[in-house]
Design brief:
This protein is mainly alpha-helical. Helix content is about 80%, strand content about 0%.
Amino acid sequence: MAAEHAPGSAPGRHLVVVLCLLGTVGQAGSFLYLPALPGMAVEFGTGEAGAQTTLAAYMLGTCLGFAVYGQIADGFGHRRVFWMASLVFVLASMAAALAPDLATLNAARLAQGAGSVAGIITARSSIRTLVPPDRAPQAMAALTAVVSLAPAASPLIGAVALEFTDWRATFWLAAVLGLASIVAGLAILPRGVPVRAEDRPRHALRSLARSRTFRACVVIGSSCNSAFMILMAGSPFVFIGIYGLPELAFTGLLGAILVAFAVAALVSGQMVARMGARRALGLALVPVIGGALLLAAVGLTSPGLWLLYAVLFAMVASMGLVVPTGHTIMLAPFPEIAGTAVGVAMLVNTIIGALALTAYGFVAAGSVAGYALALALFVLGILGGWALLPRDAERPA
């Protein structure tokens, strides 16, 4: 069945705003309850390690979702599959809020993670299939900017909620956000399947694996995602544990980095529109790679707090020019299997990011030098993706 809206048409003037909402719900589900972890651990009679299993369960659920959601949505229509997967997220959030023990909570978190991927996959693939090509780079930049702020904003919202109630309220709030995304998604997503079955590759995964452009962009995305995971997990131990920064001050400084990343992401949309995605990416690599090399050098000199922060700020902010541009290039050749492409790429990014974080914990954690070198190493991995990228990477198939 053909879609009501042809690819490249916008089914509503508020499309990008709604897609940004859809893309942030999963992030909110993951980070809203972080301030409640200590209270949760006390109620269930477990320690920090037990409470952290809820994060692992959520991540495992997202991996399962990334593995299957995109292909199913491409085959049966993003509108239909989106509301079904989002309903799983809502019901799982409600189950988490009512969980009587840690085992039940982890089961709910697993299901919540699996349902959470619907928003981000639908948002990114819809930019490729619904937004006119001349506006797609700006739309992808806006989505990246909004999504990047979720890790900073969500815990703050959760902390405010905890001032009035207990940890279970954070999951009720996630359920409300999920319901809002279902309503918004049904309002803007077209009915039917966007691409006829005969127009899609018979072997979508094989087509992606054979694409040099896709492989290159996955390397770029995995490098950025690994760096971000180390940034989020390692920064508290460095800036609070080693430098003695107060928790509130650290939260503000980390938030400033994420805001700078979001601003750079918005700028990237304008750069792509003016000069093309591949050239914009090449220019963006100059401050990113320069920042990574400087961070590695500074990290080996026992730097002061503000020198380390300044270099880190500049490097991560510059990465905002890379991430949305990489997504734009990756999806350009695949309008017919955009959901599958996003799902596979995010699955690989998540797995490699988790492995990178594990390796960091065993090899480099506990020192400023280890933190700086690990971040620099994964950022430098972007060069590997750039080397793989063909000259005609922006050309649709």
